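Sanity check

After download, print the first record. It should look like this:
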Amino acid sequence: MLISREYALSLFADLTQNAMVPLDPDELLHMPGLAQHGHVFFGDIAVRCYKHKGRWMYDERDIRRTGQALAELRLDLDDVVDVQLPAYRDFGENDPEEWHRVDWRRHLVSRMFRLARHKAQDGVPYEERWDSWKRVGANGLPGDLTWEEFVASCSRYWHSQNMAGTRPLELLTWSGEKWLLPRAYIDFLDRWAQREEKLVDLARVCTTCGAQGPYWGDWRTSTSKGYVTRCPPCSGAAFRPYAGHLRGVQYESSRRRGTRADDYLCCLCKKSQASVWDHCHEHGHVRGPLCGSCNTREGKATPYYFLQVEGSTLHLLECRGCLEQRTLPSRFHLDVVRAHLEQTERHGRCRKQPYAHELEPTHGVHRFKLECSGWHTASLWAKNVTASETTALVRAFVDAALAAQEGRPSFGTATGAG
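Expected structure tokens:
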């Protein structure tokens, strides 16, 4: 019998309340591996996710079997061995696909060094930053990072503290020379890495032609029955391209409700089956069919980065209201201004592009702080942009996009900020 995620969480927590392995039942709500392979892992046990009537659910039998198995799992907490953590490597030193593969030891090291770097460089001018944070101290942690800081930072974010639905920091200890974990727990995580790799490899295969897709799941598409894997050519052959036949139609209209989005190819990425009708929340007009990933990116991603996605601006202008008013939804306005300032503002003769971020507005004026740091002493200055200047910048940005007929117009082409 299929059960809700909330009930599955409650049932699982009851079954595993006395488990020796430190577990995080909330993984059943977060479902971190959903898009990649459609399962939730607790150690080496994979629990399959099912989609029923648009909701993700679990089989109650799977939850009971998994909970019982973990409740019965024994750990000898005195039988500890060296974790054998690898040396730290910067992201740029890794093959992109290798970086995404399951390697819990490397990810643990990465967390340690990332936090040590943040602590060492926070508030320090660029030219004064050194690599002292890479040196491992007597406590086994890099830089000046303390164990309390490491635990506290990981605890703020569930994805930073968990591995395979377990909490390794509750078992990890420093001997004075090396990091230790119970032998059985290390074997548990190693089996998880092997099993998750197999599931990911299976989920990479196009269900139509059998071609193998990228490791990070670009070919995976959310549908009404769950995720499917299709390569771009197979998606293009299976679904119709959207020709704009609902342009100007209100999202709530019966005409829109009578047309299925999943009959079409995503009109933004143009390589996945669409799953929803995207629409402008300010004017109510349909923009077009989007796949789950593109819809999430449009609604939840930072507007600054969404506007740099190819075709994104023109997609937003599929709303008749935005197009006729030569504007964008209001949540994008300040990011257009920010990008314009970064393209056009400079500190004296410095050619380095500054970083701009918004301050609290004052009397209807948007205030930005710009920071320029590079080969000279860091400099800060402020820039005020009025509401009318913001409107002019957004209009210039829209006009540039329409003139170029592409989704990545130059941010610097907009003018008007004083």
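If your output differs, re-run the checksum step. Summary of this record's structure: The chain has four domains: 2-72, 80-203, 220-300, 330-413.
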